[in-house]
Every structure is written in C-alpha cells, then in structure tokens.
Design goal:
Length: 433
C-alpha cells in the first residue's frame, strides 16, 4: 500500500488550509504551505503553529509562481484548500493536473461541492487519484471527517487515504457518497436552517434556548450559525435547496430576513460590529449583549428579552444533571403543550432525516451516528433513538407524519441498541447549561 510521506497544501493561508496543514504537520508529516505570496503562506504557518501550540513543526512555505512545480514533483498527497468556489477550484485543479506526478493523490477539502464534477474534464490519472476530504472546523479540535470518493476514484486510493487519515493523523473517518453536502452538513444544516426559519415566528432567543445543549448539542443552533458565518450557511443551504428534492427540501430555503441581513453585511461573529443572530458591544465586564429581531432587522438588549421557557425544559436539564439523558428524553416525549410539540418536531425530524440518508449517502446507520457525534459534536440520531426507545420512536414519527427509517424498524424488531460505539459515553453529548 502506498504511504503518504509528504503533503503539499494549496490555499494554505485560509482557515481550512492552515488548519488541515496543522493536523498533518502535528502528526510528523513534512508539509509544504503554498499561497499566492510568501507572506500569506507564512501567515498560514503561524496560524498552524498557534493552533497546535508549536507541535506543527516541519512546515515549509512557498508561492505558486516560484515553488509549485518543485513542491508537487515529490508530493504524495496534494491537498487543495482554496476558496469554496467551483470555478476557482477547477482552475487550480487544472494546474495541478499539469504538474503532478502520476502516483500522487489529490484531495479537495470541500463542505459540499460535487467531487466528480471538479475533475470531470481532467486526465484519467487525476480522476483515479482524486477524492474529497471534508474536515470540520477547526480540524485541530474536531476529529470527525468525511472521505468522499467519486465514481471514478480508484478503490485502492480510497483505502490509502482512509488508512492515512485514521492511523496517521487520528481522524474518525466516515466514507460518504458524492452527494450534495455529503452526510454531516446535509443533516446538520437541515436542522440549523429549520431553527432559523422558526426563529422568525418564535424569536431568536427563544429558539436557541428551546433547542439548546440539553437536546444534545455542543452549542445552541443559532449561535452555531453565527460561528460558522452567515455567508457559509447561505452557500450550503442554497446548494442543498438547488440540488436535493426530498422531504427536507423546504427546510433548505434561506429565510428572507437572513438574506436581508447578509445584504447589509451581517455575517455573524466574523463581522463583530454588525453581528448575526447575536451581537456584542464592548469587551469584558462592560460588554453588552444584543439579540436580533428578525422582523425589523434591529437588535435589542438580551437583558430586555427573557423568553419564558416551559417547565419541561428545566425538567430535562435536571435529568441531565443526574446523568440521565434517557430521562430527559422521557420528559420531552411526555410533555404537553405547543412548545413541547415544536421541540419534538425538530428532534424527530433530525432522527428521521438523518437515518433516512442511510443507503443514499452512507452505507450504515453507524456512519450517520459517527459523523454527527465526531464531526458536529451533536447527539447522534442513534443515541436519541436508544434514549427514547425504538418502538416509541416509531410511534412518535408516525404521529408526526415523518418517514420511519429502516434502521429504527430493525432496532425495534431485534430489540437491540442502534448506537454502537462502546468507547463513547452517550451522556457526553448532553449539557444542562
């Protein structure tokens, strides 16, 4: 089996280029950072060193104009990490195709572009040696990643890359099919955008507290969109709305109020002065926190908005504090009222759509569970089904008029857990904050 002993990063000055390069270099792989200018490449190296606290040694820097041909001549893995733009990536891959050696593997880091489409008119050699690798940001912290071969990828190349990612750089690798946004983003952004749609009616602060960490996620959903960036969120959901036509199609429609804010330059945390769903003025103890009013596009002090959460939310949190996340799910399933129905709709939709991707996007239910657990740091669908009980989950899905995936029917029939990761404590996904 071919070994990967040298990696070359193109687009090394970007967040994903420098972050991915940091992962390779920290694993002891000689890594070359290339960018348009030496200054940009060196800034990427500095960021990689900061991310790894100095462990990303062995990084050399260069430019496309001066060093590309020499760097690619003996590269085992060429890692293209330029901007998430189909035309830009295709242009760079054309150049790589001209300069690479026949034995080199080429990977694109993408969150959802069609992998096969990027090399559709490239050489047969590049097509055979080309894969997608979707690291989740920041890759130095989040170990889940997706490996995406296209129809023309050599299976031997897939095996080499999978082994390298898993054994050399310590990734939790999930292989997905070359479908829109792959598995993690397709499911994750379905939920995120659904919450953004619901926020228009129910309010930003209310939705983020209703679907908070007690429901099995590291960060509330709208705060997550602010962290990701509204421009990135828009690109992903627009792509999914255009290229998927399934039961979640309407969930991928970007809310009109978000588009208005984007047009005004509000992109989340990356535009600190303008904000996104939330905005902070000042620093430290003097900082003031504001929340978006979707109807007006204005911001109101968080202190003036204290959404009245139903009692069952506190009951869920109390169960989690007692290390009983199944108890929290019991509270949710038994709770009455409009708010409970709303939260059940979101959680059941996540379960149904996620496990419904088995067969189309991934091979096994475990694949969906692993990418959501290790990539998004969300409670995997299988964990939620086990906590609720597969039989009860089926009843709730039918009541909600949602598809019942085969994986849940199988778990109910054979009376066995769906989540199969003995080394993972399911309780770690739930926080009572």
């Amino acid at each position: 089996m071919k070994s990967i002993r040298k990696v070359v990063i193109l687009g090394a000055n970007g967040a994903m280029g420098s972050g991915s390069g940091a992962v390779f270099a920290a694993a002891g792989i000689p890594t070359v950072f290339l960018a348009r200018t030496l200054e940009k490449a060196e800034s990427g190296r500095s960021r990689a060193e900061q991310l790894t606290k100095g462990k990303a040694s062995g990084i050399s820097c260069g430019t496309y104009s001066s060093d590309l041909g020499h760097a690619l001549a003996d590269a085992d893995l060429i890692f293209e990490a330029v901007s998430e733009d189909l035309a830009v990536k295709r242009e760079v891959l054309t150049l790589i195709d001209r300069l690479r050696t026949a034995s080199s593997i080429v990977a694109t880091v993408s969150s959802g572009l069609p992998i096969g489409g990027l090399v559709a008119d490239r050489s047969d050699s590049l097509k055979r040696n080309f894969v997608g690798i979707h690291f989740f940001n920041p890759p130095t912290i989040i170990v889940g990643c997706e490996l995406i071969p296209h129809a023309g990828t050599d299976p031997g190349v897939v095996a080499v890359v999978r082994d390298f990612l898993a054994t050399v750089v310590g990734r939790e690798v999930v292989e997905t099919r070359d479908t829109p946004a792959f598995a993690g983003n397709r499911l994750g952004f379905k939920v995120l955008n659904e919450i953004a749609q619901l926020a228009e009616e129910h309010g930003v602060a209310f939705m983020d507290q209703l679907v908070g960490p007690h429901t099995g996620r590291a960060l509330p959903p709208l705060a997550t969109i602010d962290l990701v960036g509204w421009d990135v969120h828009k690109a992903i959901v627009d792509n999914l709305h255009a290229r998927t036509h399934d039961v979640a199609h309407d969930c991928f429609v970007l809310p009109a109020y978000m588009q208005r804010q984007i047009d005004r330059g509000h992109l989340g945390r990356k535009t600190r002065n303008k904000g996104g769903f939330f905005r902070m003025d000042g620093k430290g103890a003097d900082a003031r926190h504001f929340v978006l009013d979707p109807a007006s596009g204005d911001y109101r002090p968080v202190s003036e908005i204290s959404p009245a959460l139903p009692a069952f939310v506190d009951q869920m949190k109390a169960a989690i504090k007692s290390s009983r996340h199944p108890g929290a799910m019991e509270v949710l399933c038994s709770a009455e009222g409009r708010e409970a129905e709303l939260l059940r709709k979101v959680i059941l939709g996540y379960i149904s759509y996620g496990l419904g991707l088995v067969g189309e996007v991934v091979e096994r239910p475990r694949d969906i569970d692993r990418i959501m657990g290790f990539g998004f740091n969300w409670a995997p669908p299988g964990v939620l089904v086990d906590a609720i009980g597969p039989g009860r989950t089926i009843i709730l899905l039918e009541q909600a008029k949602l598809p019942v995936p085969d994986a849940i029917l199988d778990a109910a029939t054979h009376q066995r857990p769906l989540f199969n990761e003995p080394a993972v404590d399911s309780a770690r996904f739930f926080v009572a904050a």
